[in-house]
Amino acid sequence: MRIVIIGAGFAGMYAALSAARLREIKGASPEELEIALVAPQPTLVVRPRLYEPKPETLTAPLLDVFNAIDVVYVQGSAEAVDTKARTVQIVTAKDARKTLPYDRLIVATGSRLFRPNVPGLAEHGFSVDSLEDAIALDKHLHGLAKLPQSTARDTVVVAGGGFTGIEAATELPSRLRAILGKDAKPRIVIVDRGAAIAPDMGEGPRPIIEDAMRKLGVEGRFGAGVAEVSKSGVTLSNGEHIEAATVVWAAGIRAAPLTQQIPAERDNFGRLLVDRDLRVQGIPGVFAAGDAARAACDDVGNYALMSCQHATRMGAFAGNNAAAELLGVPTRPYHQKGYVTCLDLGGAGALFTRGWEREVTMVGDVAKKTKQEINTVWIYPPRAERAAALASADPEHVTDVSGFF
Q: Domains of the chain, with CATH numbers?
């Protein structure tokens, strides 16, 4: 029997850990139940940190962890899924193709930045969506120091006033001063079509975010979108032109394209609809987790967000349940009633909220210390020691924040 997991992000990593944990508990051998994970590299990209400097350092190796728990790593990219034949077509690093049969499949392919057909965006825009994108932005920012001082050189437009846009924008003043000199006066402008900053976070956190923007000198342009990007800057939908040598696109994400290979219903974000056990509805043998799945967190109408906090726990339940079906033991319905957010505000500290209503419980330096602990400890893989790695993947305890803070 074989479980195939597509993706080495937070959901894929924990799916592998959790499936291996249940296999161990039930006394099955790796030969009886093979767990294979497919990804281009055996590396976790710490995507929530890609707004920070030195993005090339923001990865964590996984191969030693996989070896410790007897998970087979298959290097390559999943190109196609045949849910009737129960096979995955893989393109290897050398452009060869091979077919990998499965008994259970876990789609944990994550998400991609939504890039609309805005004139000039593809040619002149940057992002912090992927490791490669973040490295390209960092290289570009360092290249600004070679240019003569000008309004455009010192201006960055961040398109998108959500979580990613805010974290990128509030980090940029210190990043640019480190590059251009401590006396530099960078101008950062957040553009969003919404009427105010952080449209999804509600009224409670907003004054704190607005105060942080004022302290850092980050400007806002709301009620208007980016109509065109050029070498000289951006033109907004209201006709305003902002001279800028740097444009960072952070306006929304969608499930990765591979989800389109699964002949099932999806939501507006491209996420596969799943039941409480994270099975893709109507497709036998297929589970989905993380940003690839639209999953109910509880019985009162809350659904998992496209975040690592939800992806890790969903991955753990999906891995456990895929293994449970093959080992003939009961599955566990996914649930995630506890929910917190911790928003980095650069030099202005951070903002911590609890619950779906986003009640503010910490701000400033105290919240910043929590954010740093989350970013440097909590979201990293377990150590490559068999017992510890397997113990970390109990679905009932992965990212259970109900008892914290």
A: 2-112+253-337 (3.50.50.60), 117-249 (3.50.50.60)
